[in-house]
Specification:
The protein is an alpha+beta fold. The chain contains five helices and eleven strands, in the order ββββββαββαβββααα. The model has no long low-confidence stretch (mean pLDDT 87).
Length: 255
Amino acid sequence: MHTVWKGAISFGLVTIPVKLHAATEDKGIKLKQLHSKCKKPIKQEKVCPICNEDVDSKSLVKGYEYATDRFVVVTDAELEGLKSDIEEKAVEILEFVKLKEIDPVYFDKTYYLAADSNGSKAYALLRESLAKSKKIGIAKITIRSKERLAAVRVLDNHLVLETLHFPDEVRSTVDLPQITNVKLTAKEKEIALSLIEQLTAEFEPTKYHDEYRERLEKLIKSKIPKNAEQPSNVVNLMDAMEKSIASIKEQKKRA
C-alpha cells in the first residue's frame, strides 16, 4: 500500500511513529478526449492568450487573482518561508471529543494510520484508550503543503485519520430557501415515520454498488474487438521452444 505521509502522532508527551495510507480510491472510469478523425488522444498545450505563444514550465509563476484579470505573483521562496517547522512530520492531537459532536459535513477524506518501526506499543496504547473512552482526537496535519484539520479514531482495531474541513470552508445554509410555513397533519407525520421504520435496516455497504460504472464497463467491453491482443511482457515458454524447434528443422531441411 502506497505511503502518502510518514511522521508521528503526538499527544502530550507521547510520540507514535506512523505511516499514512489512503483508505479509499476513485473507481470512476476516466475517458480520454480523442481526435474524432484518427481516434488518438489530443495534447493539452499551455498557451498564453496575450502573447500568443506556447509557454514551457520554466516560464510559469504562481499568482492569485484578487480582482478580475488582476493578479499578484507569489514566489516559491515566499511559499517556502510560510511552511511550518513540523510540516509533514507530526499529527498534533489538540484535544479529544465525541464523534457524534461532529456533523458529517465536516468530513473530507479517510486515511489509514499504520504503526511505523518501534511504534507498536504506543500505537496500541492510543488505540485502546480511544476505544475505551469512546472519544476521537482532533488534530492538525500538513499534507502536500496544505495544513488540514483532522480526526483520529478507531476502525476495525486500527487507527484512521479523517481530514476535516475548517469551519470557514463549510458554506452556510443561510442562503438556502427557508421552508417554515408548511403545515403537516398528524396523519402525514405518522405515515412518514411508519415508512422510515419499514425501510430501516443495518448498514451493509456491500449491498450497494455503482450501477452507472458497471453499465459503462459493459459498454466499453462490448466495443473492444474480440481478437484484440492484450500486450504482455510474459513469453510462453512452450510456444517459444516449439517455434525454435520448428525453425531449426526448417533450417536443416534447407541445408
